[in-house]
Design a protein that fits this description.
This protein is mainly α. It has two domains: 94 residues, no CATH class; 114 residues, de novo design (two linked rop proteins), CATH 1.20.1440. 78% of the residues lie in helices and 0% in strands. It is built from ten helices and no strands. Helix 2 packs antiparallel against helix 3. The two termini are 40 Å apart.
Length: 258
Protein backbone atom coordinates (compact mmCIF):
# COMPACT_ATOMS: atom_id res chain seq x y z
CA UNK A 1 0.00 0.00 0.00
CA UNK A 2 1.38 3.40 -1.01
CA UNK A 3 2.11 5.79 1.83
CA UNK A 4 2.49 9.45 0.97
CA UNK A 5 5.41 11.50 2.26
CA UNK A 6 3.03 13.60 4.37
CA UNK A 7 1.67 10.47 6.06
CA UNK A 8 5.18 9.13 6.52
CA UNK A 9 6.47 12.26 8.29
CA UNK A 10 3.54 12.04 10.70
CA UNK A 11 4.59 8.49 11.61
CA UNK A 12 8.34 8.37 11.47
CA UNK A 13 10.71 10.49 9.37
CA UNK A 14 13.23 8.71 7.18
CA UNK A 15 16.87 8.99 8.22
CA UNK A 16 19.72 9.83 5.85
CA UNK A 17 20.80 6.49 4.39
CA UNK A 18 24.19 5.17 5.53
CA UNK A 19 25.41 4.67 1.96
CA UNK A 20 24.92 8.30 0.90
CA UNK A 21 28.24 9.71 -0.29
CA UNK A 22 29.85 12.90 0.99
CA UNK A 23 28.41 15.14 -1.75
CA UNK A 24 24.89 13.80 -1.21
CA UNK A 25 25.06 14.40 2.53
CA UNK A 26 26.58 17.82 1.93
CA UNK A 27 23.64 18.67 -0.34
CA UNK A 28 21.02 17.41 2.12
CA UNK A 29 22.58 19.46 4.92
CA UNK A 30 22.77 22.53 2.67
CA UNK A 31 19.09 22.19 1.76
CA UNK A 32 18.19 21.78 5.44
CA UNK A 33 20.14 24.83 6.62
CA UNK A 34 18.94 26.95 3.70
CA UNK A 35 15.32 26.05 4.39
CA UNK A 36 15.59 26.61 8.13
CA UNK A 37 17.33 29.94 7.61
CA UNK A 38 14.04 31.23 6.21
CA UNK A 39 12.38 30.97 9.64
CA UNK A 40 12.84 32.63 12.99
CA UNK A 41 13.95 30.06 15.56
CA UNK A 42 15.19 32.50 18.19
CA UNK A 43 12.78 31.06 20.77
CA UNK A 44 13.78 27.49 19.97
CA UNK A 45 17.19 27.30 21.62
CA UNK A 46 17.66 23.61 20.83
CA UNK A 47 17.00 24.03 17.11
CA UNK A 48 19.19 27.14 17.01
CA UNK A 49 22.04 25.16 18.57
CA UNK A 50 21.56 22.21 16.19
CA UNK A 51 21.40 24.51 13.18
CA UNK A 52 24.59 26.31 14.20
CA UNK A 53 26.44 23.00 14.67
CA UNK A 54 25.15 21.63 11.36
CA UNK A 55 26.32 24.71 9.48
CA UNK A 56 29.80 24.51 11.00
CA UNK A 57 30.26 20.81 10.32
CA UNK A 58 28.79 21.00 6.83
CA UNK A 59 31.12 23.88 5.94
CA UNK A 60 34.04 21.66 6.97
CA UNK A 61 32.59 18.92 4.77
CA UNK A 62 32.36 21.37 1.84
CA UNK A 63 35.99 22.38 2.31
CA UNK A 64 37.07 18.75 2.60
CA UNK A 65 35.26 17.83 -0.62
CA UNK A 66 36.79 20.80 -2.44
CA UNK A 67 40.26 19.82 -1.22
CA UNK A 68 39.93 16.20 -2.30
CA UNK A 69 38.31 16.92 -5.66
CA UNK A 70 40.87 19.52 -6.72
CA UNK A 71 42.54 22.30 -4.81
CA UNK A 72 40.15 25.21 -5.12
CA UNK A 73 42.88 27.76 -4.40
CA UNK A 74 45.17 26.39 -7.11
CA UNK A 75 42.27 26.36 -9.55
CA UNK A 76 41.52 29.99 -8.71
CA UNK A 77 45.14 30.94 -9.42
CA UNK A 78 44.93 29.23 -12.82
CA UNK A 79 41.72 31.09 -13.60
CA UNK A 80 43.12 34.51 -12.62
CA UNK A 81 46.37 33.76 -14.46
CA UNK A 82 44.45 33.12 -17.69
CA UNK A 83 42.64 36.45 -17.34
CA UNK A 84 45.90 38.33 -16.61
CA UNK A 85 47.63 36.61 -19.56
CA UNK A 86 44.86 37.65 -21.94
CA UNK A 87 44.85 41.20 -20.62
CA UNK A 88 48.61 41.50 -21.11
CA UNK A 89 48.44 40.13 -24.66
CA UNK A 90 45.57 42.51 -25.44
CA UNK A 91 47.47 45.50 -24.05
CA UNK A 92 50.56 44.58 -26.03
CA UNK A 93 48.61 44.24 -29.29
CA UNK A 94 46.73 47.50 -28.81
CA UNK A 95 50.01 49.36 -28.25
CA UNK A 96 51.49 47.70 -31.33
CA UNK A 97 48.45 48.69 -33.41
CA UNK A 98 48.93 52.34 -32.38
CA UNK A 99 52.45 52.20 -33.86
CA UNK A 100 50.83 52.18 -37.32
CA UNK A 101 48.62 55.21 -36.76
CA UNK A 102 49.02 58.00 -39.38
CA UNK A 103 49.38 60.53 -36.56
CA UNK A 104 53.15 60.68 -36.01
CA UNK A 105 52.88 61.73 -32.35
CA UNK A 106 50.65 58.78 -31.52
CA UNK A 107 52.85 56.38 -33.48
CA UNK A 108 56.01 57.65 -31.73
CA UNK A 109 54.43 57.36 -28.27
CA UNK A 110 53.26 53.85 -29.13
CA UNK A 111 56.80 52.89 -30.14
CA UNK A 112 58.15 54.20 -26.83
CA UNK A 113 55.50 52.34 -24.80
CA UNK A 114 56.11 49.14 -26.78
CA UNK A 115 59.85 49.39 -26.06
CA UNK A 116 59.01 49.75 -22.37
CA UNK A 117 56.89 46.58 -22.50
CA UNK A 118 59.69 44.85 -24.38
CA UNK A 119 62.18 45.80 -21.65
CA UNK A 120 59.95 44.01 -19.12
CA UNK A 121 59.68 40.88 -21.30
CA UNK A 122 57.23 40.57 -24.18
CA UNK A 123 56.48 37.02 -23.03
CA UNK A 124 56.04 37.72 -19.32
CA UNK A 125 52.72 35.88 -19.47
CA UNK A 126 54.70 32.66 -19.96
CA UNK A 127 56.79 33.09 -16.81
CA UNK A 128 56.01 31.32 -13.54
CA UNK A 129 53.44 32.99 -11.31
CA UNK A 130 55.93 34.72 -9.03
CA UNK A 131 58.03 36.15 -11.86
CA UNK A 132 54.98 37.13 -13.89
CA UNK A 133 53.48 39.05 -10.98
CA UNK A 134 56.76 40.80 -10.25
CA UNK A 135 57.34 41.79 -13.89
CA UNK A 136 53.72 42.89 -14.35
CA UNK A 137 53.80 45.13 -11.29
CA UNK A 138 57.07 46.73 -12.41
CA UNK A 139 55.64 47.33 -15.88
CA UNK A 140 52.45 48.86 -14.52
CA UNK A 141 54.42 51.11 -12.20
CA UNK A 142 56.45 52.43 -15.14
CA UNK A 143 53.38 52.82 -17.35
CA UNK A 144 51.95 55.07 -14.65
CA UNK A 145 55.02 57.24 -14.05
CA UNK A 146 55.37 60.84 -15.20
CA UNK A 147 57.34 59.85 -18.30
CA UNK A 148 55.09 57.19 -19.78
CA UNK A 149 51.60 58.01 -18.51
CA UNK A 150 51.17 60.99 -20.88
CA UNK A 151 52.25 58.75 -23.75
CA UNK A 152 49.84 56.00 -22.74
CA UNK A 153 46.98 58.46 -22.38
CA UNK A 154 47.08 59.63 -26.01
CA UNK A 155 47.04 56.10 -27.43
CA UNK A 156 43.73 54.81 -28.72
CA UNK A 157 42.04 52.28 -26.37
CA UNK A 158 45.30 51.63 -24.51
CA UNK A 159 44.47 53.42 -21.22
CA UNK A 160 41.46 51.12 -20.72
CA UNK A 161 43.63 48.07 -21.42
CA UNK A 162 46.14 49.25 -18.79
CA UNK A 163 43.33 49.55 -16.23
CA UNK A 164 42.11 46.02 -17.02
CA UNK A 165 45.63 44.59 -16.85
CA UNK A 166 46.20 46.33 -13.54
CA UNK A 167 42.97 44.82 -12.12
CA UNK A 168 43.72 41.29 -13.34
CA UNK A 169 47.28 41.48 -12.03
CA UNK A 170 45.94 42.50 -8.62
CA UNK A 171 43.48 39.59 -8.69
CA UNK A 172 46.25 37.14 -9.67
CA UNK A 173 48.47 38.52 -6.91
CA UNK A 174 45.76 37.98 -4.30
CA UNK A 175 44.95 34.47 -5.54
CA UNK A 176 48.62 33.48 -5.53
CA UNK A 177 49.06 34.95 -2.03
CA UNK A 178 46.18 32.84 -0.67
CA UNK A 179 47.58 29.70 -2.30
CA UNK A 180 51.05 30.38 -0.88
CA UNK A 181 49.65 31.03 2.60
CA UNK A 182 47.63 27.83 2.44
CA UNK A 183 50.70 25.79 1.53
CA UNK A 184 52.72 27.47 4.27
CA UNK A 185 50.10 26.81 6.93
CA UNK A 186 49.89 23.13 5.95
CA UNK A 187 46.19 22.93 6.74
CA UNK A 188 45.06 19.38 7.49
CA UNK A 189 41.68 18.61 6.00
CA UNK A 190 39.40 15.99 7.48
CA UNK A 191 38.68 13.22 4.99
CA UNK A 192 35.18 13.57 3.49
CA UNK A 193 34.46 9.94 4.40
CA UNK A 194 34.93 10.86 8.07
CA UNK A 195 33.36 14.31 8.05
CA UNK A 196 30.24 13.13 6.23
CA UNK A 197 29.47 10.81 9.15
CA UNK A 198 29.55 13.77 11.55
CA UNK A 199 27.08 15.67 9.39
CA UNK A 200 24.87 12.61 8.89
CA UNK A 201 24.90 12.06 12.66
CA UNK A 202 23.68 15.61 13.33
CA UNK A 203 20.92 15.19 10.75
CA UNK A 204 19.75 11.76 11.93
CA UNK A 205 20.28 12.00 15.67
CA UNK A 206 19.56 15.67 16.37
CA UNK A 207 17.83 17.63 13.63
CA UNK A 208 15.27 15.10 12.36
CA UNK A 209 14.10 13.90 15.82
CA UNK A 210 13.75 17.49 17.04
CA UNK A 211 11.82 18.65 13.97
CA UNK A 212 9.66 15.54 14.08
CA UNK A 213 8.56 16.27 17.64
CA UNK A 214 8.21 20.02 17.02
CA UNK A 215 6.11 19.43 13.88
CA UNK A 216 3.72 17.24 15.84
CA UNK A 217 3.37 19.88 18.56
CA UNK A 218 3.35 23.03 16.39
CA UNK A 219 2.67 22.00 12.78
CA UNK A 220 1.88 25.56 11.70
CA UNK A 221 5.42 26.62 12.59
CA UNK A 222 7.55 23.59 11.77
CA UNK A 223 5.71 21.23 9.41
CA UNK A 224 6.39 23.05 6.10
CA UNK A 225 10.16 23.21 6.56
CA UNK A 226 10.30 19.69 7.95
CA UNK A 227 8.38 18.38 4.91
CA UNK A 228 10.84 19.96 2.47
CA UNK A 229 13.82 18.48 4.34
CA UNK A 230 12.17 15.06 4.47
CA UNK A 231 11.43 15.18 0.75
CA UNK A 232 15.08 15.84 -0.07
CA UNK A 233 16.21 13.03 2.23
CA UNK A 234 13.73 10.60 0.69
CA UNK A 235 14.67 11.58 -2.89
CA UNK A 236 18.35 11.08 -2.11
CA UNK A 237 17.79 7.80 -0.29
CA UNK A 238 15.79 6.37 -3.22
CA UNK A 239 18.62 7.27 -5.61
CA UNK A 240 21.27 5.79 -3.31
CA UNK A 241 19.34 2.56 -2.72
CA UNK A 242 18.83 2.17 -6.48
CA UNK A 243 22.55 2.70 -7.04
CA UNK A 244 23.46 0.22 -4.31
CA UNK A 245 21.10 -2.43 -5.72
CA UNK A 246 22.48 -1.91 -9.22
CA UNK A 247 26.06 -2.22 -7.97
CA UNK A 248 25.21 -5.42 -6.10
CA UNK A 249 23.67 -6.93 -9.22
CA UNK A 250 26.71 -5.98 -11.29
CA UNK A 251 28.98 -7.59 -8.71
CA UNK A 252 26.88 -10.75 -8.64
CA UNK A 253 26.97 -10.97 -12.43
CA UNK A 254 30.77 -10.60 -12.47
CA UNK A 255 31.13 -13.31 -9.81
CA UNK A 256 28.78 -15.67 -11.62
CA UNK A 257 30.80 -15.40 -14.84
CA UNK A 258 34.10 -16.24 -13.16
Amino acid sequence: MFVSLTQKTKEMAESVFYYCDSKEINTIASVATSELDKGDWSTDFILSMILRELKQENELLSQSIAHVHGDILAENVRKEDKIADDDFMCLKQFVKANMYMPDEDIAKCAEDVYELIKSHNLQLNKLNYEMQISMSKALLQNLGNETFKPKVDILLSVPDRVVKFEASTAALTEAFKKLSESKASKVDYIAPSIQKNKVRGILNEKLIPHLEGASAALPEKYAASFKIICERIEETNIKVRTRKTRNQKDTEEIVSTQ
